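Hello forum,

I keep getting stuck at the same step: I have a sequence, I want structure tokens, and every attempt I make locally crashes halfway through. Rather than fight my setup again tonight, could one of you with a working pipeline run this one for me? It's a single chain of 233 residues.
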Amino acid sequence: MSEQPDGSKYARISAALRVQVEQLEPGAALPSERELAQQWAVARMTIRRALAELVNAGLVRTVHGSGSVRAPQPVSLRVQLGSFAAALRAHHLHPETEILDAGTDPEPPTAVRDFLGPGNGAICVRRLRRGDGVPLALERTWLRADLLTLEEARHLTGSLYDHLARDGRQPDGGEESVRADLPDAEEARALQLPATRPVFRLTRRARLAAQPVEYAEAVLPADRCELWFPLAP
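Reply #2:
Ran it on my machine without issues. Output:
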């Protein structure tokens, strides 16, 4: 018969563990499940349940091969036309980009086709963006095929906007919408999230001299990113 967590002990341990975690510096490691179980003289299942609650609350992250750590503070990101990598560097985070897929998209979604216009063709790039190794954004970007070669797309590990700026092709206007949602299974796996953790979904339509350049969708963990919008009268 498997061990069952004691409800009253679990409640006390969960509250005490939360206080302990909140006193740690972001990124600091928690004691192992075995050590915590010994500390409170309870079954590891009770500790595991308490840790899962803190993970769902966004206070703790489980790092494969390293155990549990205090989750870092959310990264404050200004919603603007600009480099995601530069925004991370401003927070003293090391940006990393993993190309998940890149290729021509002969039949993009209707919203993409309507924005980029018929006959332009589209190159689609899927990228996972990290800061100091922590997944912060899962992006899917469609660009007019005359603005980026397939070879360039497959090696786009730096800033897309910096790349476009070299030839004077960086967007100078557009709009971006944001909504809250839950991740699907693939997004949760890539972002290392529980399926119950909320995410931000950003949709960008960028233009250069009023001509469409980029249609992009990004998924960001809501507990790791704080979005702010400059206001003007």
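The CA atoms of residues 35 and 41 lie 10 Å apart. If your local run keeps crashing, start a new thread with the error log.
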